[in-house]
Amino acid sequence: MSSLSLPIGTDRLILRTFERADLDALAAYHTLPSMQRYVFSRTRDVAEVAGALNIMRSHVSLQRPGDTLTLAMTRQGDKKLVGHVSLHWSDATAGQGEVRFCINPAHAGQGYCREAVGAVFDLAFDHFRIHRVFMRSDGRNHHSIKLMQQLGMRLEAHYREHALFQGEWDEELHFAILDREWQRSAKVSDLPPRHRVA
User: Are 50 and 23 in contact (CB under 8 A)?
Assistant: First the structure.
């Protein structure tokens, strides 16, 4: 495996490791009550965001199972931080990885997550040779569910009332995609009917 080259560019984003200077932009969305259901480490104030940022700043490579790579999603034009995406290497023997993402609601619905997650799938399958990637979603997070479906992922599990969050039962959905499925869905396109030979 060749060494990982960062940052990564997509059509509109630059995916890079986190920096100390990202604190205010990260806090702008990470502390929102509406985000606390979805973020990996809960944060209520800037001090807790600073702690989460330090952890994210250490997530710079995948060397062994249990490692996480976390990348800031920044817009190419103004370099504004709009969210983050991470790849967690969960199992080496079975080649399993988990992708997580979080976006500032002010920038949701613009396709940034699809670009970022697609680029991380490319990393997972092409660079790190992961066999299967899975993602989790709250059952009420319809935007995330739609994104996973658009990426060609399949629903593999639906956990009903599996945990309590602020006095309410959580519904958790698990989606997954295999390396060969991603190559087919993202990198190969069918020719229009008029160009087919047979």
Answer: yes
Give the residues across from 89 on adjacent strands. Answer: 97
Where does 8-184 sit in CATH, by number? 3.40.630.30
pTM of structure: 0.87
Mind giving me the DSSP string for 86-124?
A: EEEEEETTTTEEEEEEEE-GGGTTSSHHHHHHHHHHHII
- Return the half-sphere exposure (C-beta side, CA atoms, 13 A cut-off) of residue 197: 0
Please tell me whether residue 155 adopts helix, strand or coil conformation: strand
- Quick check: 137 and 172 in contact, CB under 8 A? yes
pLDDT for 21-56, tens place per residue? 999 999 999 888 878 766 666 778 889 999 999 999
Antiparallel, parallel or unpaired: β 68-75 and 13-16: antiparallel
